[in-house]
Amino acid sequence: MDFSARYVALGDSFTEGVGDADSSRPNGVRGWADIMAGQLAQSNDGFGYANLAIRGKKLRQIMAEQVDAAVELKPTLVTLYAGANDILRPKIDIDSLLQDYDAGIAKLSATGATVVLFTGFDAKGSKVFGAMRGRTAIYNELVREIAENHGALLVDYWRFDEYDDWRMWDTDRMHMSTAGHLNMAKRVLDVLEHEHVIDVPEPAPQRLLSRAETLRENARWVREFATPWVVRRVRGTSSGDGLSPKYPALVRPDWS
């Protein structure tokens, strides 16, 4: 099928859609990029969509494995968010890392496609991930400069205060929930100045936990999510090992 408009999504778990479970889709997740593609396709019969993102990928892996593949698809629209998995590592050279990022964005921009980049989220409400605020702020300033230099659009995730509500996050506290993904799709479409009809459900009221319940919940999170994450880092493995991209070739997103 010939596509007059071609959207290619690049990145890690954020763009793959982790946190928005859907057993009917490849890799068992939907996510904001799929939701957005469905909206874009409604107004364009010649719309094609590819999603090359794989959970756990670090920035240089994304640049090496996904950028050239995206260029070959001759995109008219590209979204890319990369770097969160690097920021969480014990040591990181952000300046060197963003030089490689800049080279990748240059390749994508050279295609003539509209390129959409993201700042990192401000995790000030997290006692664990809030420690990375300084790193993320430096990363964000470099991303802003790269976006300006290459004429890319910017989705300023850092300033999205609605994500201060934990109901916008999955139970692993690392990935957006279904509501979070729906909201992100709306946010990106707003940056693209594209009309959309996306219903973000009102989050269910939160029950105030007792101190004992909070301790039990935190212990469960450490056991089920934090510890496996640390073990993977120590072993040099990734949650994305063995996974392929959801949509490595262009498809018609016949979903709403």
Question: Care to describe what's here?
Answer:
41% of the residues lie in helices and 12% in strands. It has 9 helices and 6 strands. The longest helix has 25 residues, at 211-235. The chain is of the alpha/beta class. The mean pLDDT is 92. The protein is globular, with a radius of gyration of 18 Å.
List keywords for this structure.
single chain, alpha/beta, 6-stranded mixed beta sheet, 6 strands
Question: What is this entry, summarized?
Answer:
By secondary structure, the chain is of the alpha/beta class. It has helices at residues 13-16, 32-41, 59-65, 67-72, 84-87, 94-109, 133-150, 178-191, 211-235, and strands at residues 5-11, 47-51, 77-81, 114-118, 153-155, 247-251. It is built from nine helices and six strands.
